[in-house]
Here is the input.
Amino acid sequence: MPPRRSSRRAGIGLSTAPRPPWHVHWFHRVGEDPLGPAGMYACRCGLVRPGL
Here is the structure.
């Protein structure tokens, strides 16, 4: 007998829909810039940029 899964839980975070080829960056503050007075901001994709 196969294990039972909740159909509601099985779909959380596991999308099978195709993703678009573009990405909208959503930056959040991660710390201080070691080379200046600005802060560092990172996106969920891994891109890091200094603040203005």
Observations:
- Confidence is low (pLDDT under 50) at residues 5-9.
- The longest strand covers residues 28-32.
- The radius of gyration is 19 Å.
- The beta strands are 28-32, 39-42, 48-50.
